Amino acid sequence: MIEYRSIRVGLLGAGSVGSQVARLLLEHGDELAQRIGARIELVGIAVRDLDAKRDAELPRELLTTDADALIVASDIVIELMGGLEPARTMVLKAIASGADVVTGNKALLATHGPELYAAAEQVGAQLSYEAAVAGAIPIIRPLRESLAGDRIDRILGIVNGTTNFILDRMDSTGASLEDALATATELGYAEADPTADIGGYDAAQKAAILASIAFHTSVPVAAVHREGITSVTAQQVESARRAGFVVKLLAICERLTDPETGEEGVSARVYPALVPREHPLGAVRGANNAVFVEASAAGPLMFYGAGAGGVQTASAVLGDLVAIARRHVVGGPGTAESTHAELPMFEIGRITTRYAITLEVADEPGVLERIAHVFAEHGVSVEQLQQTVSGGSERATLVIGTHEATESALAETVASLAENPVVVSVASVLRVEGAM
Ligand code: HSE
């Protein structure tokens, strides 16, 4: 029997992910020791309430309310408390006391990432966070390491399972957003307060993290353009379905070159968009997540799987833990964040995209010409136009698909259309992404 040295691990938080991390560590200790070449000794689990009900049964003697003492006693700290404080203070304490840190806290990284990365780099500590984006799906390590020699052009991510469940349900059953959200709540996908998910805040935090790694640039969450799914209607989803599209909430991270100035920059944005059904992201069902990466040399890559769930996300935490523990065995400092590029953030108005616009218009001579004129005066080229007239009605429905244009030109076009006397209403505006 090999006598392994021990690496002391302190776990902060025993919620749905934390309790599964503890269970797996305790159940698979021998196997992990062989993989690492050292034994992981779970020295304690800091919790707020010693008597709270947990998803996994944990040895009572490991539970403590003294997180500070646990941090000092640990070589590696796993932070799974969530929220900004006291998580930020705890992570900084862990780094200052010489520990490496694994966290799954996307809000913390998206808000205080640069401060935490700098603190870790200063002392050569490792800060790892595979669990912070897309749950079980390996995406942070592939971006940081496997694709480190490539150049990433674009990431299109379905990184929020709750909204994907809701949009998928609307698509497959014709349900309204309200009804689909009620089902998501009943089945436990949506939180009691679903604002972070349906408002796109959760996806925006993940977009900030992905863009930072992909483009070697600090991208603050405040610089991520965010639109949630609250205004998506059953009718939009149904029209999209008939036209061969599916509505998805996308986190888009893009490296761009300004066509006029040649300036290079980065865009990170979250909004619901039409995705062709045959695109790999079009097939992402239920509460699953997927991240579609377009890299210069590697070409398109798709990462798919469970984006949440206690035991699934625990897998990502343990992967980080094993990698750090192996480094403890061989020695050497942690890998710092790469922010060498520090590209400027491009405002939403500077990006190019395509719009699908549905208009209710008066059905009379000259209307099409006047509509076409609005597009022309904003330099937006129309790619497709479909007109439907209901029998006996004096109105027509126009569905107009544009070619690529800048977001500012497209938004101004829509604003002008809304004011045009022949337009009864702008019934729907959605961007189109993932052209095949
Ligand atoms: N609330 C998130 C989602 C899971 O619905 O995907 C945690 O990031």
UniProtKB/TrEMBL annotation:
NCBIfam families the UniProt entry points to: PRK06349.1
Residue ranges constituting the ACT domain according to the UniProt record: 356-431
Coiled coil residues, start to end: none
Name of the protein this chain belongs to: Homoserine dehydrogenase
Cofactor(s) listed in the protein's UniProt record: a metal cation
EC number from the UniProt entry: 1.1.1.3
Class in the EC hierarchy, top level: oxidoreductase
UniProtKB keywords: Amino-acid biosynthesis, Methionine biosynthesis, NADP, Oxidoreductase, Sodium, Threonine biosynthesis
InterPro entries named among the record's database cross-references: ACT-like_dom_sf, ACT_dom, Asp/hSer_DH_NAD-bd, HDH, HDH_cat, HDH_CS, NAD(P)-bd_dom_sf
Upper classification of the organism: Bacteria, Bacillati, Actinomycetota, Actinomycetes, Micrococcales
Catalyzed reaction equations: L-homoserine + NAD(+) = L-aspartate 4-semialdehyde + NADH + H(+); L-homoserine + NADP(+) = L-aspartate 4-semialdehyde + NADPH + H(+)
Stated role: Catalyzes the conversion of L-aspartate-beta-semialdehyde (L-Asa) to L-homoserine (L-Hse), the third step in the biosynthesis of threonine and methionine from aspartate.
Pathway listed: Amino-acid biosynthesis; L-methionine biosynthesis via de novo pathway; L-homoserine from L-aspartate: step 3/3; Amino-acid biosynthesis; L-threonine biosynthesis; L-threonine from L-aspartate: step 3/5
UniProt family annotation: Belongs to the homoserine dehydrogenase family.
